[in-house]
Amino acid sequence: MTKAPARLDPAHYEPRRVPARMLGLAGTPDTLAAGRPGKVGLLELRYARVGDRTELVDRYQKSPLQIMRPLYVDPLRPDLPVTYLMSTGGGIVQADRNRIDIDCGPGTAVHLTTQAATKLHRAEFDHATQVVHLTAGADAYVEYLPDPLIPYRDARFYQQTCVTVDPTATVLLGETIAAGRLARGERHAYRMLYSDLVITRPGGELVVVDTVRLDPQEPGSVTGPAVFGGHDLMATLYAVTPLAAASEVADTLYEALLATGLDFGVSVLPDDCGAWARIMGSEPPAMTRAMRTAWDAVRRLLIGVPAPDLRKT
Questions:
Q1: What are phi and psi of 184, to 5 degrees?
Q2: d(CA 261, CA 68)
Q3: The whole model's pTM is what?
Q4: What pLDDT shows up at residue 89?
Q5: What is the C-alpha R_g of the chain?
Q6: CA dihedral for 33, 35, 36, 41, sign (positive or negative)
């Protein structure tokens, strides 16, 4: 058996593969390099069913990543903890390496979100990365809906999200990306923003792959179809579930988003394991409402209760 690398071993916190185009920009940072104190953020959470509710039974955190104590604030699902993922810094900066591991055991029900949007700061000599590993055990119900990624001018960022879903489990997964600091007129002024999503079954069977490559210097990379298409915000919601037919999930998403007035597309996922939607817009409040509308509609379909009101500061 191969021994797992230590937490501060680069083999643990670095992505298994960083796209070659991003690596081609690498240089010697004039700030703290990757792996130095404060540059590696680690967060490990394990949830288990304890009695009649889900509890956080194991936690490890290393600054700048941390969490608030899980809160039971969903009035119609008092068994379901809401966990806010937080950063002690002002965002992700050059040479940062984050890794988040979330293990939701059999029969658990969990909602995970961020306290606020994730700011991606300028990088001149290196890039920043974030790796997320999310596991949903048998009959688990997991919602992972972080706030938007906001890339600043000259940001270089790569995110790799690996989700392992038991065939009996449900995962709702969201991602929203802004074109930049819109209030400052920064639209696609970042250097590169790459994101890879891979969803598999416990045995390694591949279910979904979604690859996003945003490079404003490449023609059509940010303004083409299925990406921003001239808008300032792009959001995606995936619903992997056996609790309803894929076509029913897709129809539910379509009907919910039709009323928002935004541009969107909906389709079933491979092997009819669920459905997904991609939404484009230019007003942050409208996009927030659209994502909530989609989340609420799918939640009502799958577990019969509406989305709770989660207030953030």
A1: -100, 5
A2: 35
A3: 0.94
A4: 82
A5: 19
A6: positive
